[in-house]
Every structure is written in structure tokens, then in C-alpha cells.
Amino acid sequence: MTSGCPPAVRAASCALQTSAGMLGPDINALPYVNRAFLPQDPYRAARSGHLEANVVGSRGCPYNCTFCSAAVSANPDISIRVRDPENIIGELDALHGEYGVTAFRFVDDLFLGASRVITTQMAAFSRHSIGERYVWDATGRINVLDRLDDTELQLLVENGLREVALGIESGSDRVLKAMDKRIDAVMTERVARRLVEHGIGVKGYFILGFPGETHDDIRATVRHIRTLWSIADSNPGDVRASVFEFRPYPGTPVWKTLTDAGHAPEALLAYGDVDLTAEGADQSMRQRDEFNFSVGIQFGDVPLREVRAILATLTREQHERSRRTTA
Ligand code: SF4
Questions:
Q1: Which one, of 25, 15, 123, lies nearest residue 79 by Cα?
Q2: Do the beta carbons of residue 315 and residue 288 sit within 8 Å?
Q3: Does residue 100 have a pLDDT over 70?
Q4: Which of 88-102, 280-294, 309-323 shows the highest mean pLDDT?
């Protein structure tokens, strides 16, 4: 592995190059994921009835949301790479041929993350009639989707896009700015409305308890979620809200802000379980047990027990909406 390296004086730079090569190999030269090692993928989706598989179409994210472990500043030695569309389509067809998969979930940090990438991918999807054969969900970015015109949104629909997962995070522009999200609440509502009008579902991720969040901020987030639900109610696409308690991750911009402010790293990593299930009785909260952990520190103005009560209320409302939709 190091045979091509120059002599010892350049060993440090060589090690860096080698590590960059190991962390960022040619993404199109990688073999398809061997599903023999993934007993739960492909899987039969209860919601749609499709046999579904998770797929990764790109690696890395160019944005720098302050809480996110995928933020570009938290991953200085990872190069951002997007798979060639023919390579992706080859994997979709292989999964269909081998297992009968007809639905795919692009679980990248950010798949629909740049207009030129979307244009290239969708041209290839159209050439291969992907929308006539499969449906798919993907991660996306609100500010990027905001720039797509109706023809481009319609092309996503025709190519099989079923639901886009968006980091909406907050209904407070003040908090969104602190997160460096490069979106605002009005933009999110505009994008969500256009998506659901086109019949594209929205899965929105939200964070409660962000550092500096006030009671007004958290109320704005609750209002925002309910507004998005009501927009969906009069349109063919649905909005699903997935709400989380803030947790700091090492290497992220907000981690540095918190440690600079005097928080001890060990305390920021002291994860503990949070039981929001009413000791197992609350079915809506049981379904998301794996996400209910916390470092137990109040980072904003709102006490943790209030944050968790709001989180539980919103999750129950979402559970009830989903139950009605699938009933
Ligand atoms: S939250 Fe999304 S857009 Fe922001 S850095 Fe993370 S992956 Fe990228």
C-alpha cells in the first residue's frame, strides 16, 4: 500500500494521501453491496407492501449544519463523491433481478443535494424508464429543491420519486440561522407545499432542545409542523414529522461551541436512555425506542421535561395521522 510513497522525509504527507485514498476510493469502482451480509435488507415494507432496499448514491455532504456529524467541517478527510447514474441504475436492476425489489430508499447524507446532480441523475432515470418500474425515496435539501421549477419537480415524480426526507429542524428562523441551515420557515413551507401538490411525500426531521432555543422558538416549531400537516391535508402528498431531542456529536461545529463554553466532553457523551413509552404502554413511542437517548443536559431555555413532553405529543399526533392514512 505504501510502495509508491517517496522516502521518509515525505512520510507524513504520504500517510495523509494514503488515508484520503482509503477514505475516498473511486465510488464507481466499488462493488455493489453484498446483501448476503444484510439479513434485513431487502425487506417487505409494511406501509407500501413493496419489497424495498436501501441504496447509497453518494458519499459526503457539502453543507455545514452545525449539529450534524456529516457536516463538511466535521469530515475534512472525506471527499464528496456522487455515483455515476448508470452505476446506480445497475444496482437497482441487480436488486430487482436477484430479489424482486421494486422500491428503493436512497439513504445518503444528501442525495438530492445539487441541481446539476439531480439533472444528470434524472436524465439517466428517464432513459432507463425507472419511473415505470420502481419507486424510490431520497434525502434532499430544501434550498436546492426551492430552485427547481415545476417541470423539474414533475420529472422527479415521473421518475418514481415517492418521498423526500428533509432536514427541516425548526420553525424558528433564529434557530435555523444558529444551525447554519441556509433555509427559513417560509422557504420550507413553500417547498413542502410544492412537493405535496406534485404528490411527493415529505418526511421532515426536527430537533427540539437546540442550544439557545427559547420557549418562543419551540412554539414556532410546533406551529410549523402543524402548518405543514395542514398543507398536506389538502394535497395528494403527505407530510410525516420525525422529532428528536438535540444531542451533540464530537467533531461538529456545535460541539466546539459547547466545549468552548465550558461543557466537559465526557458529560456531552454521557448518553442515557429516555423512556417516552410510559413504561411500554405508549405504542407510538415504542416504535422509535432506538432514538430515545439523551445526554440529559438542558441546552436551551426550555427544561428537558417540557422538551420531551412536546416531543411525545408531536410523535403521538404523527402516529395517529399515519394510522389513519394506512387504515
Ligand atoms: S444536516 Fe443534511 S445538509 Fe446539513 S450537513 Fe448534515 S447531511 Fe448535510
A1: 25
A2: yes
A3: yes
A4: 88-102
Q: Which regions of 96-200 does DSSP assign to beta strands (E)?
A: 103-106, 135-140, 161-169
Contact 60, 78 (CB under 8 A): yes
Please report the atom of ligand 1 found closest to the CA of residue 141.
3
- Ligand 1 pocket: which of 80, 82, 110, 111 to mutate (most atoms within 8 A of CB): 110
- Enclosing domain of residue 12: 1-26
Looking at the structure, do residues 141 and 240 belong to the same domain, yes or no? yes
Bridge partners of 202, per DSSP, are 164, 239
Residue in 115, 55, 108 with CA at minimum distance from that of residue 80:
108
Residue type, position 42, single letter: P
Nearest atom, ligand 1, residue 169 CA: 1
Model-level pTM?
0.90
Has residue 2 got a pLDDT over 60? no
CATH number at residue 239: 3.20.20.70
Which atom of ligand 1 has the smallest separation from the CA of 64? 5
Q: Which of 230, 254, 278 is the last residue before a domain boundary? A: 254
Ligand 1 atom closest to 72 (CA): 5
Pocket test for ligand 1, best of 59, 61, 66, 145 (most atoms within 8 A of CB): 61
Would you tell me how many other CB atoms lie within 10 Å of the CB of residue 123?
12
- Does residue 225 lie in a domain region? yes
> φ, ψ for residue 292 (rounded to 5)?
-90, 75
Residue 45: CB partners within 8 Å, gap ≥ 6? 51, 52, 103
Pocket of ligand 1 (CB under 6 A): 61, 63, 65, 68, 70-71, 109-110, 141, 167
